[in-house]
From TrEMBL:
Organism this protein belongs to: Pavo cristatus (Indian peafowl)
Keywords: Autophagy, Lysosome, Membrane, Metal-binding, Repeat, Transferase, Ubl conjugation pathway, WD repeat, Zinc, Zinc-finger
Region span, Disordered: 492-511
GO cellular-component term (any): lysosomal membrane
Residue spans of the WD repeats: 116-158, 203-245
Protein name (database record): GATOR2 complex protein WDR24
Principal cellular location given in the protein's record: membrane
Record field: compositional bias (Basic and acidic residues): 498-509
Cellular compartment(s): Lysosome membrane
Catalysed reaction, written as an equation: S-ubiquitinyl-[E2 ubiquitin-conjugating enzyme]-L-cysteine + [acceptor protein]-L-lysine = [E2 ubiquitin-conjugating enzyme]-L-cysteine + N(6)-ubiquitinyl-[acceptor protein]-L-lysine
GO biological process terms held by the UniProt record: autophagy; cellular response to amino acid starvation; positive regulation of macroautophagy; positive regulation of TORC1 signaling
Length: 789
């Protein structure tokens, strides 16, 4: 504590003096409250209920309100509040549902004054009216709020929130009759104490329970709320509909919020679990706290500013059984520990780099950045000289490295996403369609990938060779088989070599035969013989040649020359002596330059042994003995990993969806989820919402499939009174009418319901469609020209 500062604050005739200090409590605290003159604080919990005097150097225990040998459950407090008009009046919310008031002016040891036992479950919150001495409000786990007049024995008003439980209630500081209530279903309701039958306003504030709320002490319409969704939101209640004006994202569920006195935009928060620290936020800068208090070792359960007009003293109680007074000058500043540099890519490929101005001010090549050339997304904050901390006045320099508009274009991504077909057709058609889309965008490697996937995984045995063809260069539409070759493509060294002269007796009768009768077409331009019906057989020869340039002529009787199998004399055929015969090469070149030779003429061509080739032919169909598709799964997996590492998650995810269970087991679930989330994020950045939703629906990853249900919320208003529908069902809470009535047949719509977004009237889909055939006006008679999409 040696480093702690001492602070003195003058408040009218009073002076607050103190330092950061703490005292140990007998038990964990659930709530604390301070008296009007900021000299005493009351601490309440399940096993503690004491009043401490706040001295200059320490806390001094003044009064223990738990009296008697066997204290009842009335002393087990969930909340406590000290009246700001009467320094002798306290109220507590008990865990057994009892609201108790305490009169410190009583001469006896037992200061208990009145008991209100109307709540059936735990009371979560009690609140005194800021100006009325005898008015007390409570909110309970039973879903009811009750207003008590302390001069009477029973409550004077009961308010039903029609929810499971009330988490917090707070009287408005500026509006005499208004109070706010927060609920476990995420709603916030505003009530008028004169009208206990129904709330004045209701809106959904958080995704999950709303644990706390606090009215701004200066601005009449600002209401801060905190919830389990780890957010603190500030709402402007001056408008006809509650408007969210600020939102602060914290790291844990928000248990308490308290506006900082004399600082309009500062608010203090503490967490319900995990995080033990107390944060003070500037709501205009929601990403990093302005100050942080780290003294508590367990969850902070209660925070309160010591005085309504003093922003420098903060009191807190915790489950670690300590009571602290925090001095604002001793608070740590998270901005000091934050990374002073930032780096980010824009949607268009521009790179932004922010750093301390002192680091890059010496760069003479820097030019002033006038703003984004497409969207004004960069702003410079004006400095406020009244800010609390000096670091606010420090400035950063932003450097933007722009890319060429066309080079960074992502049009191909958008077109691909819109045109790809991912489901609803056979696998072969999907692959063909996507290959065509990729090729049309000059993405030839992706197109080739789709083609290979089609060949590997589609059911090829039932298709003709013509349908299996795909473009493989030279504009050819033939399969990637060795159909023909050109003599001019033969290297010069091969022309003088004598070819293997394998005997017919060495041919295999099952799969391979020595096809010595095959006729050679030595024509440069002839890639496919007119009128020939080439079966899907592989041709393997002694000469290296292009796959598109080798083909067979005689296939009418492929087994005519098959003889009985005999074991060859040698394991490997002996190579003939190389004969130096340059005239043979000239002869071949002359034949290559000759005119086209027709199929009939080719049969009569007599070739010399030097010109003939021994060709190996697979006599059976190519697809009867092909490898199973599972054999290629590791290769396909590596291909998808390659595309993902290159940043093309679009191709990786599209192939995952199209192949489905064929490839899913080869890639771990975490990698798939990462690919899906990256692709969905890109789609949403380009506002391709429908395609993003389709990818989520077709996803093979369980964590992605549930995104639609988890992040989709429908806010429904009644078509009669235009108020939000709170209950599940067809009956509106306010007007007590069915909200889903068909404007044509006047019956309840139990299936598809279509409505006009202009007037909110609608009905059965078929009835509305039939009505619009004859009239464009609303069938409900409101006179609106309805538009249905």
């Amino acid at each position: 504590m040696e480093k702690m500062a001492r602070v003195s604050t003058a408040l009218g005739g009073n002076t607050l003096t103190g330092r950061t200090m703490f005292c140990h409590l007998d038990a964990p605290a659930n709530a604390i409250s301070v008296c009007r003159d900021a000299a005493q604080v009351v601490v309440a919990g399940r096993n503690i209920f004491k009043i401490y005097s706040i001295e200059e150097e320490q806390f001094v225990e003044k009064l223990n309100l738990r009296v008697g040998r066997k204290p009842s459950l009335n002393f087990s407090c969930a909340d406590v509040v000290w009246h700001q008009m009467d320094e002798n009046l306290l109220a507590t919310a008990a865990t057994n549902g009892v609201v108790v008031t305490w009169n410190l002016g009583k001469p006896s040891r037992n200061k208990q004054d009145q008991l209100f036992t109307e709540h059936k479950r735990t009371v979560n919150k009690v609140c005194f009216h800021p100006t009325e001495v005898y008015m007390l409000l409570s909110g309970s786990q039973d879903g009811y709020m009750k207003c008590f007049d302390l001069r009477k024995k029973d409550s004077v008003s009961t308010f039903s929130g029609q929810s499971e439980s009330v988490r917090d209630v707070q009287f408005s500081i500026r509006d005499y009759f208004t109070f706010a209530a927060t609920f476990e279903n995420g709603n916030v309701q505003l009530w008028d104490i004169r009208r206990p039958d129904r709330y004045e306003r209701m809106f959904t504030a958080h995704n999950g329970p709303v644990f706390c709320c606090d009215w701004h002490p200066e601005d009449r319409g600002w209401l801060a709320t905190g919830g389990r969704d780890k957010m603190v939101k500030v709402w402007d209640m001056n408008t006809t509909r509650a408007k969210e004006i600020y939102c602060v994202q914290t790291i844990a569920s928000v248990a308490r919020v308290k506006w900082r006195p004399e600082c309009k935009h500062h608010i203090a928060t503490c967490s319900m679990m995990v995080d033990h620290n107390i944060y003070v936020w500037d709501v205009r800068r929601p990403f990093i706290p302005s100050a942080m208090f780290e003294e508590h070792k367990d969850v902070t359960t209660g925070i309160v500013w010591r005085h309504l007009h003093d922003p420098y003293f903060l009191l807190s109680g915790s489950k670690d059984s300590t009571l602290y007074q925090h001095i604002f000058k001793d608070a740590s500043q998270p901005i000091d520990r934050a990374n002073p540099e930032g780096l980010c890519y824009s949607l268009y490929g521009d790179l932004a780099f922010a750093a301390k101005e002192s680091l890059i001010s010496s760069d003479s090549n820097r030019k002033p950045y006038i703003g984004d050339r497409r969207h004004p997304i960069f702003f410079k904050r004006k400095l406020d000289p009244t800010e609390q901390f000096e670091y606010i006045s420090s400035s950063s320099a932003l450097s933007v490295f722009e890319t060429d508009v066309e080079s960074g274009s992502m049009d191909w991504f958008v077109h691909t996403a819109k045109q790809y077909a991912l489901a609803g057709r056979p696998l072969a058609e999907l692959c063909d369609h996507n290959a065509k889309v990729a090729k049309g965008l000059d993405r030839n490697q992706v197109a080739q990938t789709w083609t290979m996937l089609r060949i590997i995984y589609s059911s090829l045995g039932t298709m003709s060779s013509t349908n299996l063809n795909h473009s493989m260069g030279k504009g050819s539409t033939t399969l990637p088989l060795m159909n023909s070759f050109n003599l001019k493509d033969i290297p010069s060294g091969l022309g003088s070599e004598s070819r293997l002269d394998r005997s017919k007796g060495e041919s295999r009768t099952e799969n391979i035969l020595m096809d010595s009768s095959s006729t050679l077409i030595n024509n440069e331009d002839n890639e496919e013989t007119e009128g020939s019906d080439v079966p899907a057989d592989y041709l393997l020869g002694d000469v290296e040649a292009d796959e598109d340039d080798l083909y067979m002529m005689d296939h009418e009787n492929p087994h005519a020359e098959e003889q009985e199998y005999s074991l060859p004399q040698e394991a490997f055929p002996l190579r003939h002596e190389i004969v130096d015969n340059p005239s043979a090469l000239d002869h071949l070149q002359d034949k290559a330059d000759s005119p086209h030779v027709s199929g009939n003429e080719a049969e009569t061509v007599s070739l010399t042994p030097v010109e003939s080739f021994s060709l190996i032919s697979i006599s059976h169909s190519l697809y009867e003995n092909r490898l199973p598709s599972d054999f290629f799964n590791p290769i396909v997996r590596d291909t998808l990993l390659f595309y993902a590492e290159q940043g093309d998650v679009q191709t990786a995810v599209s192939v995952l969806i199209v192949l489905g269970d064929r490839i899913r087991k080869e890639i771990d679930e975490q990698t798939q989820e990462h690919w899906y989330t990256s692709y969905i994020d890109l789609l949403q950045r380009f506002q391709l919402w429908n395609i993003s939703n389709e990818v989520i629906k077709l996803s093979t990853c369980r964590a992605i499939n549930c995104l639609n249900q988890a992040s989709t919320t429908l806010h429904i208003n009644c078509s009669n009174c235009k108020r939000p529908m709170s209950n599940r069902g067809w009956i509106c809470d306010r007007c007590r009418q069915c909200a889903s009535m068909c404007a044509v047949c006047h019956h309840v719509v139990k299936g598809l319901f279509v409505w006009c977004q202009g007037c909110s009237h609608g009905g059965h889909l078929q009835h509305i469609m039939k009505w619009l055939e004859t009239s464009s006006h609303c069938p409900a008679g409101c006179g609106h020209l309805c538009e249905y999409t």
